């Protein structure tokens, strides 16, 4: 991920370094992190955000209105990120369920003494995780 120092970001966004400082103080933009020499480093997302800010300024929005709009857009993004993560978890759970069924059939075909040996080799945390997954799949997800 490319990170920009203030001068580089100002040049890329075609605005002054003072403007970047001002927008940072207003909370319109935030540095991604700081370098070892304590320079503020901004992400490519910040460059895109600056382009949105300039576009909204040209449409005659005040900086306060722009901040409000950007904040509301970020909230929608947070909801979208949460939705994406939940979808990803659902896909992973479906994969785990398939694998659990495969393992279950393999273990079901083993002699009890063989199955016991396999489970004894598992770490206690792994066994607890497997048991929790088994219970979760038996109960299913809670309905809202």
Q: How would you describe this structure in keywords?
A:
144 residues, mainly alpha, Multidrug-efflux Transporter Regulator, Chain: A, Domain 2, 3 strands, 73% helix, 6% strand
Description:
The chain is elongated and about 75 Å long. It starts with a strand and ends in a 5-residue tail after the last helix. It has six helices and three strands, in the order E-H-H-E-E-H-H-H-H. The protein folds into two domains: 3-60, Multidrug-efflux Transporter Regulator, Chain: A, Domain 2; 85-139, no CATH class. Helices cover 73% and strands 6% of the residues. The mean pLDDT is 84. Strand 2 and strand 3 form a beta hairpin. It is mainly alpha-helical. Strands 1-3-2 form a three-stranded antiparallel sheet. Helix 1 crosses helix 2 (17-26).
Give a short summary of the structure.
This protein has 144 residues and is mainly alpha-helical. It has six helices and three strands, in the order βααββαααα. It has helices spanning 6-13, 17-26, 44-58, 63-108, 112-121, 124-139; strands spanning 3-4, 33-34, 40-43.
């Amino acid at each position: 991920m490319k990170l920009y120092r203030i001068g580089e970001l100002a040049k890329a966004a075609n605005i002054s370094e003072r403007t970047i400082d001002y927008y940072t103080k207003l909370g319109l933009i935030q540095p991604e992190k700081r370098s070892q020499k304590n320079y503020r480093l901004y992400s490519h997302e910040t460059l895109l955000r600056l382009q949105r800010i300039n576009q909204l300024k040209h449409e005659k929005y005040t900086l306060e209105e722009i901040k409000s709009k950007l904040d509301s857009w970020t909230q929608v993004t947070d909801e979208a990120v949460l939705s994406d993560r939940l979808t990803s978890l659902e896909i992973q759970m479906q994969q785990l369920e398939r694998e659990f069924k495969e393992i279950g059939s393999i273990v079901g075909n083993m002699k009890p003494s063989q199955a016991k040996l396999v489970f004894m080799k598992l770490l206690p945390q792994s066994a607890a995780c497997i048991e929790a997954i088994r219970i979760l799949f038996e109960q299913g997800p809670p309905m809202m």
